[in-house]
Amino acid sequence: MTEASTSDGVVTLTPLGPNDATAHLAGEDELLVRWLNGGPGTRETVERYLRHCREQWEISGPLRAFGVRVGPEGTLAGTVDLRFAEEGLAPGQVSLAYGLYPLWRGRGLATRAVLLASRYAADRGGTEAVIEVEPENRASVAVARRAGFALYGRGELGDGTPIDRYVLALRRPSG
Q: What is the DSSP letter of 19?
């Protein structure tokens, strides 16, 4: 199993798994449903997704789903997903998606989580992180910009929804 945890002393990313279902369901709100989840979660759908996340860690699959944890107890504050293989990505590109629960927004935690996830992706051979976000999702756009991502271009989802693509060149640490 390819387990990993990474921390900056404030935020810690650890593999997301089945034990996170209750906290995730409690934290889900209208904004997460709208911008990230694609629909409200149920106990069954969240548990199925979290089992899939665990399986991806166990087989070293292309998905690395992290829980964003804060405080000495490691309270789940949100999620960050890295996808090392996805339709529309060039070799070396890694898709990055993130969301925080309402209680934890507006504290700079999402930016910290994105930076940690980007470092993780670089350490595993990623050369460029890609965030796709609807332009109206101003909070997510602000996170991408604060984390150093630059607007690369605008496209559309299959239903005609505009989507902006932000990219960040990843550099592996020397040494």
A: G
Q: Are 118 and 170 in contact (CB under 8 A)?
A: yes
Judge contact between 117 and 128, C-beta under 8 A: no
CA distance 15 to 40: 22
DSSP 85: S
Q: What is the pLDDT of residues 133-154, one digit of tens each?
A: 999 999 999 999 999 999 999 9
**CA 40 from centroid of its chain's CA atoms:** 18
131, 149 Cβ separation under 8 angstroms:
yes
How many CB atoms sit inside 10 A of residue 87's CB? Answer: 6
Which DSSP letter does residue 34 get? I
